[in-house]
Fold this protein.
Amino acid sequence: MLRVFLPRTKERVSMRSTIVIAVLFVCGLATAADTWPEFRGPSGDGHAAGSKLATEWSETKNITWKTSIPGTGWSTPVVTNGKIWMTSALDDGHRLVALCVDQKSGDVIKEVELFEVDKPITKNKLNSWASPSPVISGGDVFVSFGTNGVASLNAETGQIEWKRDDVNLDHQEGAGSSMIVSGDRLIFHCDGRDVQYLIALDTKSGDTIWRKDRSLDLSHVGDYARKAFSTPLIVKTSSGPHMISPAAQGCYCYDPADGREIWSLSYKGFSAVPRPVAMGELAYVVNTFAKPAIHAVRFQGKGDITKTNVVWKYDRNGPSTPSPIIVNGLLMFVSDKGVATCLDAKSGKELWKERIGGNYCASPIAANGLVYFFNREGQATVVRASSQYAAVATNKLEGGFMASPAVIGNSMFLRSRTHLYRVEAK
């Protein structure tokens, strides 16, 4: 078991190249426009507010830079103060690292080795050993490799502040759930086939603040049907923040401060990946990987809400891996097999459905009335957020996309299997 707290004055960073650290500014000066702090952005739902993104690009058009990324990883890049952080696995999963790329030049300026793994865990062929996305808060970047370890680094210098490898579970397919920060709590799901719980760590020390076991009885299903890979979403309500937390065989709502369970919702399904989204009083939750259905759930409630709070359910061509997105009252998503769908978010009425081609893992983003879908073959399809299907452009880059995009200003940062691109209109 490794449990390390490192003084902030002690440098433990291996450099890929020598750099000069300029005068540092207070992290609090960063605004939402120049930070992409977590999986799916500042609001956790894929929106790039105020951005006007390119609609056309290729290997030779609207590419500011293209950088080769060491190793393999599907984690979303996170960005703050001109630095792009992501995780990667080197040497076939034996070395787990955090990488920092300069936003302006595209140079890889830091490679911080965090964990060495004697025997890499088993993973699905579509997964990587570095799939959970980092999260940035309070000048720190937090990274997770699931059961292999979680760590905190200074987002400016890359100095390791603490790390742990004793938050364990059997993922079976590899890790997938990303972390979030609420106040001074670093929160993440641990839904394995052996144990199912959430945990909140102190962001400054890494100490456990609370741990909450899932309450639904899973004794009627095999251990393979007890795992899940989703990421929680915090919504604001009149009674305080509610954390919507999908799991195997059900979804939960917790108070992020102390882990108190507010309600639970039972459904059939496991291994769901999509992160919930919310609009008004409704949260939209995907239940399973095999035959995914979107549940529209009133998130104000207490206890068992299974029979009272499900407003509608849609179970045709749902997303197993990509998260949905809501724009102008429209719930839009793409299935893993490339069928894009638009529903009226309030009623669940299907407005249109279109096969846009390819296979999908990355979650879409929305900006300036447009929605961007990225597939595993490297194609990006841009459509209008409209009640009628309207394609704007189709673009292609090498490598294919497993990771979801990040946005800063009018620039997209697209992580392919092999490279990181900065895409912006010239």
